[in-house]
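Our preliminary data section would be incomplete without showing what the modeling component actually yields. Below, a chain of 247 amino acids is followed by its predicted structure, encoded as tokens that our downstream tools consume directly.
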Amino acid sequence: MSGSRAILLIVAGAVSALSLPPIGLWFVWAVTVWFLLGCSAQARSIIQAGLVGLCFGFGYFAAAFHWIGFAFLVDADAYLWMMPFAVGGLSLFMALYWAIAVALAWRVNVLPGFVTVPATLAIAEWLRGHLFTGFPWAAPGLAGDGMGPVLQLASIVGMPGLTLLVLIWAALPFALWQSRGSNRMALSVVAAWLLLLPLSFLWGGHRLSQTSVDANTRPVVRLVQPNVSQDEKWRSDNAAAMFSGLL
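Predicted structure:
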């Protein structure tokens, strides 16, 4: 794989992170997944396929985890040099899950890539949230937050299922393009998956409309923001004052 393609994959992965809250541009997946599927289909070996997933995943997680770097700005003179290693290292480790997923999808090669890649990525995301105590931040299924009532599907399929659905929906434009001129059965399957999106929207809207909350019995939740600066929060002599303020 050429260096220019690797860079484009990293950029495509980073753009995919725009689907996450609070931005919520869920439709960017349709473009970036197209590029991911195209590159994985052109891979000549399982190593190349794994590198495709690694580059795409690295860009995605680096953008999604950028907020971790803010902690190193508290005392930038002393800690700023650690930022790229912390954010980059974590992103690279998380991207290994996606590398294995894309490589596995390429190796199986039984079903079309627009089916196997979303499936293996969804499995990889479930594993990422459970192995080594789990780190489930920034799952692609969070794009559902920007899809309005569609997010209600999480009550049935959970975040792993929502991740699978988001990636399959994102892969459908590529699937339609790849299935052009093929048999009607393939096109029918793609059309059915496309139809599922507006149906999910309607079902989610109906579910929300049927939800009523009694103001007298609903739980009361109070959120308290300590608003303590980073350079003061770890001083033990401030503990009593901070606790008193919160109380």
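The chain has a mean pLDDT of 89. Residues 83-108 form the longest helix (26 residues). Preliminary results of this kind motivate Aim 1 of the renewal.
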